[in-house]
Amino acid sequence: MAKAFLTQPLEIDQRKIRTEAKLLAALVSLRQQAKAFKEITVQDLCQQAHVSRATFYRHHDNIADVIIVAVLTAINEFQLQVDQIPTINFEIGSSLLIEALYQHLNLFALIPWSQTHAQVENLFGGAAQQILRLREKSQVTQRFVSQFIGRTILDFNIQIATSSQLPDQTEALALFRLLIPNRLELNDRDSHKNQ
């Protein structure tokens, strides 16, 4: 597959990065304390994170937004990592995905707890659609396959992150390669009708 830059690096100042890390760590802590997500107020989160409410509202509309921003950042990091690889294939891509999953286990565990699955699924689908667009698939194929792949990878990640017995990274990679579709050589004979 040809190398293509999937995304431009996000330019974020260090204070914002530290604030986002504190807010995310506070959410992880609140989840581990078995607090119901719907019962957490911005005040609760800010106290736990040692961040002012003004700072919170400067960057976010609501608490779920903290998770969405963290997912966007993780996707961006992954895409930048993929851009560094001259030739990407399923084996390399799946290894990178599992490494990213294990770097962000706590983030993926927050998704079902916060009920942000639908929003995150759309983000994963969008990232997959960028890749399919580079492969010049039809628009219908892009939409359908990207949503399917995005949902499948997200569900796999959540299942691993919330498992009572976390498989080691090698096991998770073997499971991923067994369960996730690894060929996108679709027949686009009707692509001219769908564009």
Automatic annotation (TrEMBL):
Stated name of the protein: HTH tetR-type domain-containing protein
Gene3D superfamilies assigned to the protein according to its UniProt record, in alphabetical order: Tetracycline Repressor, domain 2
SUPFAM superfamilies reported for this sequence: Homeodomain-like
InterPro entries tied to this protein: Homeodomain-like_sf
